[in-house]
Amino acid sequence: MRISTKGRYALRVMIELAKCKANEYMPLHTLSERQNISEKYLEGILGVLVRAKVLDGARGKGGGYRLNVDPKKCSVWDILSLTESSVSPVQCLDDAENRCERANICVTLPVWKELDSMIRGYLDSVKLDQFVRGTEEAEGKVPDGKNWSCGL
After folding, report:
1. Is residue 100 included in any domain, yes or no?
2. Strand, coil or helix: what is 65?
3. Cβ 21 vs Cβ 94: under 8 Å
4. Model pTM score
5. DSSP 8-state secondary structure symbol assigned to residue 88
6. Residue 53 predicted with pLDDT over 50
7. Which candidate, 61, 60, 21, 27, places its Cα nearest to that of 46?
8. Phi/psi of residue 59, each to 5°?
9. Which of 62, 104, 140, 150 has its CB 3.0 to 4.6 Å from that of 20, i.e. a possible disulfide?
10. Residue 83 CB neighbours (<10 A)
11. Do the Cβ atoms of 59 and 20 come closer than 8 Å?
């Protein structure tokens, strides 16, 4: 399993937006600058997140992107499951139904299932707000968001 740049960038952007005050939009160019991601590539990632309704997007002056989920409830798993084609350790676990012709006799399948469960469990246990709290503590910022500037 390898997480793509799309998944990693999506997580970084979600963390950046989680730092903002509620209902505050961050312009695309600001997200792009802060995360050092091209606007064109970032637009594609943001489109996926908006279609999944984890972000809201607004056009025009004062527009941009904002979280549409609670950072205390949104997990790394939630984000990666939207942006990655698979995070399973082996291909036969990519789909809900294992279609491998050897599944019923595969002696290694239990190992892969357990690893898959551990990966999903761990990624689901890590929430966006944990990153924000860690960033605030490292930078000496207050948790109420007063020191975050999400606009221009």
Report:
1. no
2. strand
3. no
4. 0.83
5. -
6. yes
7. 27
8. -90, 165
9. 150
10. 22
11. no
Percentage of the chain exceeding pLDDT 90: 65
Query: What interhelical angle do 76-83 and 39-51 show, nearest 10?
Result: 110
Residues 6 or more apart in contact with residue 147 via CB below 8 angstroms: 141
Considering the domain boundaries, does residue 73 fall inside one?
Answer: yes
Of 10-14, 60-64, 134-138, the poorest mean pLDDT is in 134-138
Neighbouring C-beta atoms of residue 129, cutoff 10 Å: 16
Token pair of 122 as six digits: 């761990």
Range of the domain at 42: 5-87+127-139
Which residue, among 31, 21, 15, 33, has the nearest Cα to 64 in the 3D structure?
31
Q: Does a structural domain hold residue 64?
A: yes
Per-residue pLDDT at 27: 96
E strands along the chain, which residues? 55-58, 64-67
CATH number at residue 135: 1.10.10.10
Number of domains in the chain: 1
In a domain, 114, yes or no: no
CB-count exposure of residue 14 (10 Å: 0-12, 13-18, 19+)? buried
Among 33, 117, 123, 112, which Cα is nearest to 83's? 123
